[in-house]
Amino acid sequence: MEIELVQGDITTRDVDAVVNAANSSLLGGGGVDGAIHRAAGRELLEACRALRQGEYRDGLPVGEAVATGAFNLPAQWVIHTVGPNAAAGQTDPELLRRAFANSLAVAEELGAATVAFPAISAGVYGWDAGDVARTAVQAVRDHRGTGIERVEFVLFSERVLQAFRAALAESGD
Ligand code: AR6
After folding, report:
1. What residue stretches are annotated with the Macro domain (predicted)?
2. Nearest by Cα to 77 from 38, 50, 116
């Protein structure tokens, strides 16, 4: 699987699936979540509301992932996941690993060949960008499946991009 680092706005990426760093409510928020909802349009919120009325009545648990359509985005699907919130004491790296790994599993199930990820939990949720980058790269390396051809990490800031560059170099790529 090819890994690419891109600096910019994830909502513009022409990939099959865009991963959203959501919160358990699935009903939008700030950061990348807000940007994805704004760009995708109201139908995304409606799709998320439908999830909340069905299987995810109590919200999406930390570390899990679920897909909706992507509406006005160039992508076909949005995969919503919830990273751990370090600012609220969720510092277990396994939760962060699961957010990346379960998003990849959902992408694989959907038949997505290209997937774009933001730096889950590296913003409001307060994780160190280096920890996020190493966890993200390892999750991609550990993913077992044949459908996903390319994973893009789309990083907003130069600082987070550098953290991902370092993690990729450390992992031998
Ligand atoms: N494209 C790519 N990356 C972005 C974009 C964008 N358009 N906008 C921000 N980032 P955050 P979290 C970067 O806070 O830490 C929301 O309110 C940002 O610079 O979006 O998982 C949710 O509803 C940072 O590096 O997500 C939750 O309540 C990274 O994306 C909570 O924030 C993640 O920052 C989730 O917090």
Report:
1. 1-172
2. 116
The fold for domain 2-170 equals Leucine Aminopeptidase, subunit E; domain 1 (3.40.220)
Q: Cβ distance 63 to 35 under 8 Å?
A: no
Which ipTM value was assigned to this complex? 0.99
How far apart are alpha carbons 92 and 85 in whole angstroms? Answer: 10
Domain range annotation of the chain: 2-170
For 133-165, the pLDDT digits (tens) are: 999 999 999 999 999 999 999 999 999 999 999
Q: How far is CA 47 from CA 57, 88, 115, 172, in A?
A: 13, 28, 20, 40
CA of 117 to the centre of ligand 1 (A): 11
Cβ atoms of 1 and 100 closer than 8 Å: no
Q: Is 36 helix (H, G, I), strand (E, B) or coil?
A: helix
> Which of 85, 103, 124, 157 to mutate for ligand 1's pocket (most ligand atoms within 8 Å of CB)?
124
- Conformation bin of residue 65: beta by default, left when phi > 0, alpha when psi is -120 to 50: beta
Q: Which parts of 74-173 are beta strand (E)?
A: 77-82, 114-117, 150-155
